[in-house]
């Protein structure tokens, strides 16, 4: 299954529902294009919902880091929502879990942008 | 003398679209050997990263070059060889992705994950040409991680059987 990224707007937050495999190649490129596209529109509060991500590899993890850096560099915030156990474990192993703001409730995550 | 290993071989063209075939083979071999779900995932992920490395960095995605994967199934362990037809690399030159200066790097975590998920990892120049990445995972780690204190009994049984 390839990757899909569906963008929706909730209040001032852009939620990206990502599903499938985030791996080297088209998937990483597509995710990068979506994030850069939203930044280009001035959307700087981004919430990546990873609930339906079935697989992520080292390049996919790198793409999340790249997205985080790109958004931060524009003065925005990128947060992660609903990590699967595998993604959670990979972020722990790579010591990235504390780099990202990770949430498991969408309403709570949306609210956290408002208070930021 | 150790019994001969059963061997499963998969040869792939250097196309990233083929990586899933290698993963499927890894998952099937690991499941048939009796690895638990976590062990299967670790083997699958290690093979994924090693094959990506071989296709992307080793063979430079040249479709005329192949990636050769051999699964050697022993009673107590799985040994996996992933050989490319490229120039090779020195794992000692791969930066530590956990170092503070690399933590926000967007690459360089593949080999690190392979080392984390497998019990042994080494890189050799293959006599047939190219680079051979060799990874080993022992079945006994399954008992250690799942059954805590009873792990020693299982290891003992495994060693004597």
Describe this structure in words.
The complex is a heterodimer of chains A (116) and B (161). Chain A has helices at 26-40, 58-73, 85-93, 106-115; strands at 4-10, 13-22, 45-56, 77-81, 101-103. With 116 residues, chain A is of the alpha/beta class. The longest helix of chain B is centred in the first third of the chain and has 22 residues, at 37-58. Helix content of chain B is 39%, strand content 23%. Chain B has 161 residues and is an alpha+beta fold. At the A-B interface, helix 2 and helix 3 of A face helix 2 and helix 3 of B.
What is the compact description of this entry?
The complex is a heterodimer of chains A (116) and B (161). Chain A has 116 residues and is of the alpha/beta class.
Helices and strands, with pairings:
The complex is a heterodimer of chains A (116) and B (161).
Chain A: E1 4-10, E2 13-22, H1 26-40, E3 45-56, H2 58-73, E4 77-81, H3 85-93, E5 101-103, H4 106-115
Parallel strand pairs in A: 2-3, 3-4, 4-5
Antiparallel strand pairs in A: 1-2
Helix pairs in contact in A: 1-2
Chain B: E1 6-13, H1 19-33, H2 37-58, E2 66-73, E3 77-83, H3 110-117, E4 120-125, E5 131-138, H4 140-147, H5 151-160
Antiparallel strand pairs in B: 1-2, 2-3, 3-5, 4-5
Q: What gyration radius of chain A follows from the Cα positions, in whole Å?
A: 13 Å
Distance between the termini of chain B: 14 Å
Largest interface: A-B, 20 and 21 residues
Helix and strand run of chain A: EEHEHEHEH
Mean pLDDT of chain B: 86
Low-confidence stretches of chain B: 142-161
Write down the overall mean pLDDT of chain A. Answer: 95
**Strand composition percent of chain A:** 25-35%
Arrangement of strands in the largest sheet of chain B: 1-2-3-5-4
Question: In which order are the strands of the major sheet of chain A placed?
Answer: 1-2-3-4-5
Number of strands of chain B: 5
Dominant shape of chain B: globular
């Amino acid at each position: 299954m390839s990757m899909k990224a569906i963008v929706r707007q909730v209040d001032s937050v852009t939620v990206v529902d990502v599903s499938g495999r985030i791996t080297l190649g088209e998937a990483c490129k597509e995710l990068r294009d979506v994030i850069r596209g939203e930044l280009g529109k001035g959307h700087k509060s981004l919430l990546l919902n990873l609930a339906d991500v079935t697989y992520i590899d080292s390049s996919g993890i790198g793409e999340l880091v790249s997205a985080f850096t790109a958004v931060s560099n524009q003065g925005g915030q990128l947060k992660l929502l609903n990590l699967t156990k595998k993604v959670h474990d990979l972020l722990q192993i790579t010591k990235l879990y504390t780099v990202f703001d990770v949430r498991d409730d969408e309403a709570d995550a949306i609210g956290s942008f408002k208070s930021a | 003398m150790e019994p001969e290993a059963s061997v499963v071989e998969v040869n792939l063209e250097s196309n990233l679209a083929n990586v899933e075939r290698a993963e499927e083979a890894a998952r099937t071999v690991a499941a048939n050997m009796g690895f638990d779900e976590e062990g299967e995932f670790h083997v699958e992920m290690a093979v994924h990263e090693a094959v990506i490395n071989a296709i992307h960095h080793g063979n430079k995605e040249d479709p005329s070059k192949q990636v050769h994967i051999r699964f050697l199934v022993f009673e107590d362990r799985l040994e996996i060889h992933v050989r490319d037809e490229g120039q090779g690399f020195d794992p000692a030159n791969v930066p530590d992705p956990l170092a503070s200066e690399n933590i926000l790097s967007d690459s360089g975590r593949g080999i690190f994950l392979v080392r984390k998920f497998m019990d042994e990892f080494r890189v050799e120049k293959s006599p047939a040409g190219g680079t051979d990445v060799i990874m080993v995972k022992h079945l006994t780690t399954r008992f250690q991680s799942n059954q805590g204190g009873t792990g020693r009994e299982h290891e003992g049984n495994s060693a004597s059987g």
